[in-house]
Amino acid sequence: MNLYLIRHGNTYWNTLGKIQGSRDIVLDDKGIEEAMILRNYIKNLSIDIFVSSPLQRAICTTKILNVDNLPLIIENSLSELNFGAWEGMIWNDVKVKYETYISQNTSHGYTNPPNGDTYDDAYTRISNATKKIIDMPHHNVAIITHRAVIRFMLGHLLNENLENINTFELPNTCIVKLTNNDNPQHWSFESLIL
């Protein structure tokens, strides 16, 4: 099985550097263009099925990529993490305003945001969604979701600490390819396509 973990296209909030989290922000013109460029690459991957986060930025990206009208599953558990009080803020402002909070509430490379998803909740939700996907009877699965979700999926499948995974730059419409060579217990990172 091959998993193609794809980050959604650009949004206006991405351009501004704002934390979107669970907010349902749509693609901007740049994001639509990015998805259309990616579509030319995707059509050569023999995708069997698309699985998408329910947020509009992921669904719109998926619809642009899915030109052959392949099966599509909307998986609620692939929604971006809820970053609580930080949503709508810029990361640098969060680091300044919440410096003490961050130093006291970070573990596993993740800070539990005030009124947002905890590490345990996010890990459980995303791990369960990942298990559900890898149990599908498909060979090439395209998963369109969000940066934090992709990082949690990588941590789960590669048995890697989130602190190490957080060093991966995952720009909009990048693809992370994982393969298991028909061994669902052993996943390997094959490539990062920007």
UniProtKB/TrEMBL annotation:
Lineage summary: Bacteria, Bacillati, Bacillota, Clostridia, Eubacteriales
GO molecular function: phosphatase activity
Pfam families, sorted: His_Phos_1 (PF00300)
Identification of the protein by name: Histidine phosphatase family protein
SMART domains: PGAM
Active site positions, chain numbering: 8 (tele-phosphohistidine intermediate), 80 (proton donor/acceptor)
GO cellular component: cytoplasm
Superkingdom of source: Bacteria
Residue positions binding substrate: 7-14, 57
